[in-house]
Amino acid sequence: MTTRLITALLTGSSLLACAGAALAQDKTLTIESWRNDDLAIWQEKLIPAFEKANPGIKVVFSPSAPTEYNAALNAKLDAGSAGDLITCRPFDASLDLYTKGHLADLSSLPGMENFSDVAKSAWQTDDGKATFCVPMASVIHGFIYNADAFQQLGITPPATEAEFFAALDKIKADGNYIPMAMGTKDLWEAATMGYQNIGPNYWKGEEGRLALIKGEQKLTDPQWVEPYATLAKWKDYLGDGFEAQTYPDSQNLFTLGRAAIYPAGSWEISGFNTQAQFKMGAFPPPVKTAGDTCYISDHTDIAVGLNAKSPNADAAKTFLSWVASPEFATIYANALPGFFSLNNAAVKMEDPLAQEFVSWREKCKPTIRSTYQILSRGTPNLENETWVESANVINGTDTPQVAGEKLQKGLDAWYKPAK
Questions:
Q1: How far apart are CA 191 and CA 369, in angstroms?
Q2: What span, in angstroms and rounded, lies between the C-alpha atoms of 176 and 258?
Q3: pLDDT, tens digit, for every residue of 374-392?
Q4: 105: Cβ–Cβ under 8 A, 6 or more apart, which residues?
Q5: Which CATH number does 140-298+368-412 carry?
Q6: What are the pLDDT digits (tens) for 229-249?
Q7: Domain locations in the chain as residue ranges
Q8: What's the CATH superfamily of 19-137+301-358?
């Protein structure tokens, strides 16, 4: 065999070896996120499950501090150094990323059919024609209660407003518990745990929310003012000094067993499970009249999208389709009880309190917080103004009617509904 032939054969073998090595090289996807608390869950549960089913694709979860995430992400995107996958906050922050060309359109991604229009609404263009993030989880509003206290006092979870206030009266008369743990000092608590919690039963969830965006309803209409009238009645049940009570104060009053009812978001579940030394239960916002349709704030909270400039787009889309699957939904929702899958597939929850919250989806119509889509883009910001007025109404410094008038006047100052 000639030297030239041997050299050619060896060269060919080297090329084949290199080609084989290239084929065997794993693609590595990096996820940008603000949820640094979830690092262990991704590393120990989610990523191993995906990599086992998808050999050849590796995933790295690379979170930033929550308060720094938006700025850090934008800087990376502008510099071209951002990860392949972008964890998406709801509504305007992510819409801005899409508008700037940083997020890819995922409308036709396999698996996106597993989500309802409400689930996708936080990560769509205003016209609904493009969806740019795969919904991961929502939080649900309602009331968490001290089940031991209810049993002692012979109270069953209320289904109507009359039953709700009768329960509060009974707890107050007994004197061993503050009827309800909520303060107004931090403002947002009064709106998020109060107005946005009970309000959907009045404005009929999506029907009212979308009508407000279209300009067909106003915040001075009865269905938007009446929840404030109900909130004003809460004042008598919040305990002494609630005006100076912060959100952590409210959490502590409940978990220490000093309050019987806590107006809640489901994100409290994990913390309360470790802190409360008593059995807990939960009930949805009571309806006005027995037999009324119930509505819950099933608020879209977190999603994940594709960096439009990712060099690994195909592998990233494989990952995103997995995020859209029932398998991911089950692992994620059980790893983080209180952050509920937005997937249409039923997810069996292991945590009993989380299971109670998510069961309301079977009997109540879902909606999202009324101020989050479109209506808080201007000045004054409707979300922030709703915080102020919710606190004012509970404190007794504004009437429900005045609150509605102030909010509508502020909205009218900058918002002109599209006709």
A1: 10
A2: 8
A3: 999 999 999 999 999 999 9
A4: 98, 130, 131, 132
A5: 3.40.190.10
A6: 999 999 999 999 999 999 999
A7: 19-137+301-358, 140-298+368-412
A8: Periplasmic binding protein-like II (3.40.190.10)
